[in-house]
Amino acid sequence: MTITTTHSFISSFTPHHTFHNHHHHHYKPPPKITSQLPIKPHTKTGAIIIGAGLSGLAAATHLHSNNIPFLLIDSSDAVGGRVRTDALDGFLLDRGFQIFITGYPEARKILNYDTLNLQRFYSGAKVYYNGEFYNVADPLRHFFDAIQSLANPIGTIFDKLLIAWTRIRVLTQSDDQILSGDEMSTIELLKGIGFSDAMVDRFFRPFFGGIFFDNELETTSRLFDFVFKCLALGDNTLPAKGIAAIPEQLAANLPTSSIVLNTRVVSIEKPESGDELYNVRLSNGEVLRAEYGVIVAVEEPEAVKLLAGKSFEFEFPDEIRQPVRSTVCLYFSADRSKVPVRDPVLFINGSGRGIVNNMFFATNVAPSYGPPGKVLVSVSLIGLYEGDRMRS
Which domain of life does this protein belong to (predicted)? Predict the structure, then answer.
């Protein structure tokens, strides 16, 4: 029997803490899966999964496919963790700026892309620098755009050749090779490859900083290579019904009775001498017993609360190892007639000035994100800002 910790795998540009909405109204969220199993004290099951975010749902999907009984427990009122969508005044507001990258290998295994009705972004970005926007395009998808961008100030021609070389490098490695290879910070990797300071500051910092919430690019090079490979293999997209369509699809394929919501786990207790079952204690005092083990699929702060100081077959840190990273997402609406931009493209701030990291017109990518005649604007900042901490 084991206790296993998991990591989220699907969605990029996912907020860790704050979601900011420019409008403040009462809203009615779209229908969610909100089943709750009436638990009896000392209920025994095969496996217990704590956390119904993407990681927990993926774990549940694999257990279900192998006919292993389980309970999936979450303290929230719906599945998805941070990957949620709220409906407000005809708009679909994802909780933070989120993009679904179709190249993620686990997502390809367990999701039905067709039913998600994925709406694609332009394969590239428009970079704001020195008062103008410059195009950075994927040459395999937008060849002529890429040729025209060779001489723009977002890096040198040599930088753009290095992007092509980096693409080849990651595509010729397996995922296992990437995730077990030599490790350094992303900024060290980029400088080691030979990218100029201009390319790093004007493109990589705002683009991958928006993915990692890390403008300093201290994130591990393994994750950079993995995401770079997924970007090369897939498209950047949004589900037509909002990012919440992803966890809702996963949950819909699981037994309803196996999903327990509005229920908080307060402790995991190691089996006593002569007992082979882990005890999972709930906030209401009830105890669940796991025959095969417990999967902890929550963020590190919550995992530390549940596991730190416990004597299991593995060592778990007594405190958070990495500082928490945060992002702020602001939503604005505008009349369609007043917005000249029609492209489904991501705009990033390569100027090194101001607090905005990136923005895009969500309704340009997926018209279903707003009512007719309206545009939904998503603006993202990295970090927390005093005076802007109102949570939806």
Answer: Eukaryota
